[in-house]
Amino acid sequence: MISKAQIKHIRSLALGKFRKQHKQFVAEGHKIVEEMLLTGGFQYQLFVSENQVESLSPVVQAAPFQLISDNEMKQISQLTTPPGVLAVVEFANQMYALDELGSNLNLVLDGIRDPGNLGTIIRTAEWFGVKHIFVSPDTVDPYHPKVVQATMGSLFRVGVTETDLIALISEVQADGFQVYGAVMDGVSVYETKLTSQASFLVIGSESHGISKAVRALIKNPISIPSYARGKLKTESLNASVAAAVLLAEFRKSEA
Amino acid sequence: MISKAQIKHIRSLALGKFRKQHKQFVAEGHKIVEEMLLTGGFQYQLFVSENQVESLSPVVQAAPFQLISDNEMKQISQLTTPPGVLAVVEFANQMYALDELGSNLNLVLDGIRDPGNLGTIIRTAEWFGVKHIFVSPDTVDPYHPKVVQATMGSLFRVGVTETDLIALISEVQADGFQVYGAVMDGVSVYETKLTSQASFLVIGSESHGISKAVRALIKNPISIPSYARGKLKTESLNASVAAAVLLAEFRKSEA
Fold it and tell me: How high is the ipTM of this complex?
């Protein structure tokens, strides 16, 4: 049983402005809820529909949940086919200390609009050991349902902070951090000295790249060389693909 | 003006079985149609709606097209917001000679189901100089509208052939090609000798990896090491991300 007010509240979290207002987002699906529970440290409310109560993994079963009808689940789910396991999760406190950033490679995303791309980048960032991602205000909300799905749980383990990129980059560059940016006309990443400590990698939007004002601050513009032959060729890589190739190269440079 | 029969025919191409039957697919949008025309060598029928006739690029303007009403365009478009430029394109003849494969790195996709992933992989493959991609019959149709969009035009310049992977890999391996496969438990790609001539790289599906029968044939299983710390971490990379990191590494090994 779930109250009408609860249903209305959870439904409202489909919209970014209510997610921001309540500092909550929705995570749906057996796997993603299990990842949230295993990661730990989150405040959440968990809902399981009657048709799924037999299929819960031991981890989800052990968590406190509210059993609701399949019809109630349909009303709060953001998916066409509700997986039957839904958590309302409070935003984790995205705190970070400058010295933690200093011992790491950090990622900066400037205007990524596609939720699938952002989710894939967060997942890839975790794979390559990135702990903090900074996103511009015009990047898609990291708690958008499609982003949450695409991260496959990585969202619970990588800190994502929305911030003014100009202020951030100016500050960390003044502090001696190296700031790299993926651009079309940079130095080949294979001919650049890469530092994966006290450094930031900036990735721009799918269609416009890094914004002009941010680009002007970047001291290390880098590019992934194309091996396509012929006059006519693809002009760019997908943002998540470019991020992946560059992150791999940074990590390799450590070895 | 466009006949009812034409409208019906073009609408039918939204379905894979009719695309296969007629050996035709639909490409929509100013940019993608321009890429098709610039690449050249395609048989096509081009439709432009009245509201777009003023916005055509010189390349599209110079091509023979049929002017139709905005309402007619709505009926043949596969998109919610029709871009107003639509081409019905005949499949190019996907011919390839074994010696052409022999001078290249070739890609094999086993069971990629997500159209966005397949499109991104085709685009990335072109960037890294791959000319031929072989896909298993259970891979999503490369002429699916969402794939066509995601390739950003690369589909016109990379050959994509559906084939039985067991037969293909057995044959090329017998011919001395090196066959690499992206797996979870392979040798680190950074500790493997990579050959980007006379070689094949196999990428498996998003959820199940490379199928068992194909996996059994692969003599060079390779992996991308994870740099995530902590017990709990993301289990895998997105298929298009894994393909990109590996293709980049193959190309780099040439240098």
Answer: 0.91
